[in-house]
Amino acid sequence: MSDVRSMNSSQLFERSKQIVPGGVHSPVRSFKGLDHAPVFFTKAEGAYLESVEGKKYIDFCQSFGPLILGHRDPDVQEQVERMVRTAWSFGAAEIYSLELAEWIVEQIPFVEKIRFVSSGTEAVMSALRVARGNTNRSKILKFEGCYHGHVDSLLVKAGSGLAGASASSSAGVSQNVASETLVSPLDDDEALEKVFKTSGSEIAAVIIEPLPANYGLLPQRREFLERIFKLARAHGSLVIFDEVISGFRVGLQGMAGLEKFTPDLVCYGKVIGGGFPVGAYCGRKDLMDAVAPLGPVYQAGTLSANPIGMVAGLTTLKKTVKVNGWEVLEKRTAGFCAKLNKLFQDHSAPFTVDQHSSLFWIRSKTAKSGPIRRIEEISTNQSQDFKNFFLRNLDQGLYLAPNAFEVSFMSLAHTDAILADALKIMEKSLKG
Ligand code: PLP
What we know:
This protein is of the alpha/beta class and 432 residues long. Helices cover 36% and strands 15% of the residues. The chain contains 13 helices and 14 strands. It has helices spanning 9-19, 74-84, 96-107, 120-135, 175-178, 189-199, 222-235, 254-259, 285-288, 307-322, 325-346, 382-395, 416-431, and strands at residues 41-45, 48-51, 56-59, 113-117, 139-143, 181-184, 203-208, 238-242, 265-268, 279-283, 351-356, 359-364, 398-399, 408-409. The strands form 3 sheets. It has a 7-stranded mixed beta sheet, with helices on both faces. The two termini are 39 Å apart. Pyridoxal-5'-phosphate (PLP) binds at residues 64, 119-121, 124, 147-149, 160, 209, 214, 242, 244-245, 269, 279.
C-alpha cells in the first residue's frame, strides 16, 4: 500500500472509505450532497488551511466554530506547548481547570458552578440528566431545527448533518427514548403554549439554541425566548441554553448575556476549548450541587478537564477579551457581509447572506425579506444553489462550511486583506 502522505484527496477518500464509515469521523466532513470528494488537509495557520495537494484555502469553517482566534494562534500555541512539557493528562485534581472555572464564574453571573467535559454532546447529555435529576420529571422539550449533539433523546427532528436529509431522526434511537422528547417548531408561540398546556407538568427542561445555527441561521424573536421562560417558570420546568456554538462566540456571556436572559443551565463547547476537546455544563448552584460526588446525578470522564484544553481555552478567552475580540469580529463580519450582499445584488445572484456577530450563512433568496426564523422558510433551492457556489469557491481556494445548512465562521485571523481576497474569489465564483 502506498504511503497516505503521497496520495491526493480523492485517493485518500477512497482509501478511508474502506475502513471508516463514509470515509470520515463526523458526517458533514464527507461533503455529502456536494458531488465532490472532501479535501484532505495537512496544515492550518491563521485564516488558512493547506491540503495534501499543497493548495491553500481561506477557511471560513474554522473547525465549525472553536477557532475564534484562527488556527494555531501563537499565544495559544505557546501555552499548549508549555503545558505539553508539563503534563497532558492527570486524571486527578489539578490547578488548570480551577483557573478556567474561576475565570468563567467570575465573568458570567448565571454560571455559579461548572463541570468540564470533553464535547458539546457530553455537556448537553449531562445537563439533561441534571434537569431530570432535579425535577424528577422525564420529558424534555426541544425545537425543530435545533441541534444539540448526538444525544439519543435529542436526535429527534434534529438539524446539522441531518438537515436536508429525508430522514429526520437517527436509526438506533429507541422509540422509548424518543418518546421522552417533545418537539415544537421555532418561532411558533401558539405551538409552544399548546405543548405546555398538554404536557407542562411532565417537562423537566426546555432546551434551545438561543441563536439557532445548525439549520442555517434562524435568529429568534426576543418575545419568543421570553415566552419560553415564562411558560417554563409557570410549569416548574427548567430552561437550558445550549450555547455550544454561541457561547464565547457572540460575546463573552454568549446569547444569554447579549439578550439578558438567565437560563437555569447552560452548555458550552467549541470556543471554550480553543480548538481542543472541551465542553462544559453549568448554571445554578443548587442544580449543579446534584452532580456526583456531591449529589445523586452521576457524571464522570477519564479525560475531563484535560489540562491542554484548559490552558488553550483560558488563553483563547483571555486574549479575545484583551483585543476586544467580539466587538472587532462583529464589525468585521458585518462589513464583510454587507460587501458580499452587494456582490450578490450586482451579479443578480440568487443569494443573500445572514449574519449575527461572527457567524454568517449564505442562503438562497426567498420572497420574504428579513431574517428567516423557521426551517420551512428556507428556500427549496438551498442545497443546489449552495453546492454550485461552494464548489466554485473551493476550486479557487476558499473553504466555506461544507454543507448548505451549516453556518460559516469569521476569526480574528481574517484580516482586511484576506477578506478582500475572499470577496474577489466569491465575485469570480458568481461570474461562473
Ligand atoms: N450543541 C450545539 C448547539 C452544537 O452546535 C453542537 C455541535 O455542533 C453540539 C451541541 C455538539 O457538540 P460536539 O460536536 O462538540 O459534541
